[in-house]
Amino acid sequence: MNAASMEKASKNLAGRMASAFIRRYSELLLIGRRSWVPGSPAATRNDGGGGLAYTVYLLASRRYGTLYLGVTNDLGRRMWEHKRKVHKGFSAKYGVDKLVWYEVHERIDEAIAREKSMKKWRRDWKISLLEERNPDWRDLYPTLAL
After folding, report:
1. 3-state secondary structure of 120
2. Domain extent for 112
3. Residue 73's closest CA among 36, 112, 44, 100?
4. pTM check: above 0.70
5. Rounded Cα–Cα distance for residues 68 and 33 (Å)
């Protein structure tokens, strides 16, 4: 199965329903760039309907385990894919599927620049960043659909 058909298959009914639910019940968290705040759901749209929000996110296999940094325009769908190991890449291979930190951006170029910058960070810097907001390394995926 090629990448295009795998991508198509990943957008099944459950994934679309999860994304729609998240978009419908999410709070608007954007004022420039904003990190996750405990108790707040993720914003997947930034203008009340039409425009996308872009999310830089950090996954972990367990506390102080393997880390994965990514960027997406639909965090709910992307997390659904990570949890179900839809793509047979790094995160599937190493069991990295706990959402431990994310940050929402209005523009894709800002999100990509942030991800590229953070990919150059030392591991302990990433851990410090995530522990500021999530000291217990809780999986934030369930909080997305509050």
Report:
1. coil
2. 3-145
3. 44
4. no
5. 20
